[in-house]
Amino acid sequence: MGQIELLSAHLNDNIFASIAGANDEKEIQATIYNIAVWLKSLGIPQWSKVLEGEDSHNVPGAIARGEVIVFRSEQTGEVAAACILQQQPSDFDYGLWGKNDPHHDTSVYLHRLVVNRKFSSLGLGPRILAWIEDGVRFEGKDRIRLDCIAWNIKLNEFYVRSGYEFLGETNGANKYQKMLK
Length: 181
What we know:
Helix content: 25-40%
Radius of gyration: 15 Å
Strand content: 25-35%
């Protein structure tokens, strides 16, 4: 598996990207937790297992493998956003996409895209998705894959607007894919 190569460290004039290290873990985990709390406050139980302490995407392991990107404010140093970009499918991905999917070797799996609520007015979600296509390189990979809960209409519409192709539903999760340029 090749390393993630950052082609551009800047998401915008104030937000920069880097590959997360162990010293970033606590802040990234807190951002994920805070998003789960916020979703619950809206009546959206999408990440309720995070509130119970479950880490289905093994954030510490992903950080150790160099698969987590952290986006920080240049002014304050705070975590503005983060995401996991797995170059190998996890057991979760095999369950969703199928063990024998022919595109596992050429796919990057996007998980846990989170935007700190303090930075939510900056439109970072769409910018991060665009940055993943142009600001980072994955050797031997030709597509980004992601999933989201099927019943979250707003989130599903967001991915379609961002150019992701709907590839069906498995176990209550909608699957999306976008080919890299």
